[in-house]
Amino acid sequence: MDNRPLVTDTMQITDSEFHSIRDLVYNRFGIVLTDQKKGLVVGRLQKILKQHGFQSFKEYYDHLVADKTNAALTELANQITTNHTFFFREPEHFDFFKSDILPWMVKEHTAKRNNDLRIWCAAASSGEEPYTIIITLLEYFGIDYKNWDCGLLATDISEKALIAAKRGVYDQTRFQDVSAAVMNKYFKKNADKYEVIDKVKNEVTISKFNLMNERLPFKKPFDCIWCRNVMIYYDAPTKHALVNRMYQHTVNGGYLLIGHSETLARDQTPWKYVKPAVYRKEE
Tens of pLDDT along 86-110? Predict the structure, then answer.
């Protein structure tokens, strides 16, 4: 294997240094960084090394391992993860959510005389997805929304993304699939950007959470879990361990939605295939 350093404008990295950082990222975040991602990793970490005065990637790695506050790991996660998304991404999911999932949820909770609809957006990124889910709920229920507890839990590993989610301010590029009616109803224009109105913001609880945690700290199971476009960074064992943990925290008949570029091996998971990127726990 070529162990010559990869030369950049300000820093260089050897294969052994890259593999140390790669293994740390995998063990802490479940993200797989192949050798082909070396240049991307170096580029994204240059700013950190320069800002903190590290003289080598080994020195940076040693700092990551020694830091007991986890601040350095948080900073690493912010740089490594990709958080580009937009409103109503993969619209087929939102159509199915309205046509099948929500009617089932309403029927189940009405029968149990329980108005607590529990939904988890497990890879919330900068907030477009959880806010889209709330808008879909508001449109579906209309004036009846007030009779349901429809709050949504939105989590992500990146603090940078979560800060953006809490602000809820986006540029025009994030609204390519949003109608003018929805824009006028749920967003307010702020200079050249658009901000989610408080009626939507207040329905989303935003929190930092690492999906690699072996235990999910939830007291009640979810009716529907959205975990889209994050497992593309995981290898098969990591992915299936995660969705199997989610299975244990989903009600019977509940749904799991994943990204359309993602699949689950049916012989390695108890989830039952419904349609592309939609799975269900048997009732």
Answer: 899 999 999 999 999 999 999 999 9
Q: Give all domains of the chain, ordered by start, each with its CATH number.
A: 6-80 (1.10.155.10), 91-280 (3.40.50.150)
Q: What is the gyration radius of the CA atoms in the chain, in angstroms?
A: 21
Torsion of CA 5, 6, 8, 11, to 10 degrees: -40
Higher confidence at residue 257 or residue 2? Answer: 257
What distance in Å separates the CA atoms of residue 234 and residue 32, rounded to the nearest whole number?
Answer: 6
CB atoms within 10 A of CB 144: 9
CA distance 277 to 183: 27
Burial class (CB in 10 A: 0-12, 13-18, 19+), 30: buried
Tokens standing for residue 74: 């948080």
**Confidence (pLDDT) at 82:** 66
Distance CA 281, CA 283 (A): 6
CB atoms within 10 A of CB 127: 30
pLDDT in tens, 189-208: 988 899 999 999 999 999 99
Contacts of 3 (CB under 8 A, 6+ apart): 14, 15, 16
126: phi then psi, degrees, rounded to nearest 5? -90, 15
Element (H, E) at 154: strand 152-156
For residue range 53-91, list pLDDT tens digits in order. 888 888 898 998 898 888 888 888 778 776 668 899 999
Q: How far is CA 244 from CA 26, 104, 277, in A?
A: 19, 22, 16
